[in-house]
Amino acid sequence: MPRISLKAARINAGLTQSKVASAARVSTTTVANWERGTVEPSWTDFVFLCNLYGFKEDDIFLPKHTPKRCGKVSEDVTA
Fold first, then answer.
1. 69 forms bridges with which residues in the sheet?
2. Are the beta carbons of 54 and 11 closer than 8 angstroms?
3. pTM greater than 0.85
């Protein structure tokens, strides 16, 4: 079976971010961040979401976590 994104799994289950947030006892911002890959859900939260959406853990993939950069990045690298 092909894998499905966290967002697609939620939509497939007919749920809004608000309903998921309420069921998971988190904010809608948290759900949106999970779906965008800004923040990864804990394993417990991930398993909860899989059960809520009706998928096995192996069927859902998470977006690659890309932490925000803070401040200016220097390109000056000396050996």
1. none
2. no
3. no
Burial label, 5 (beta-carbon count in 10 A; 0-12, 13-18, 19+): middle
Q: Give 58-61 contacts, CB < 8 A, sequence gap 24+.
A: 58/3, 59/1, 59/3, 59/4, 59/9, 60/3, 60/4, 60/5, 60/6, 60/9, 61/3, 61/4, 61/5, 61/6
Yes or no: say if 48 and 19 are a contact pair by the CB < 8 Å rule. no
Residue 22 dihedral angles phi and psi, to the nearest 5°:
-65, -45
For the segment 66-75, what is each residue's pLDDT rounded down to a tens digit?
555 444 444 4
Beta strands in the chain (DSSP E): 4-5, 60-61
Q: What are the structure tokens assigned to 64, written together?
A: 């690659």
pLDDT tens digits for range 26-42: 999 999 999 999 999 99
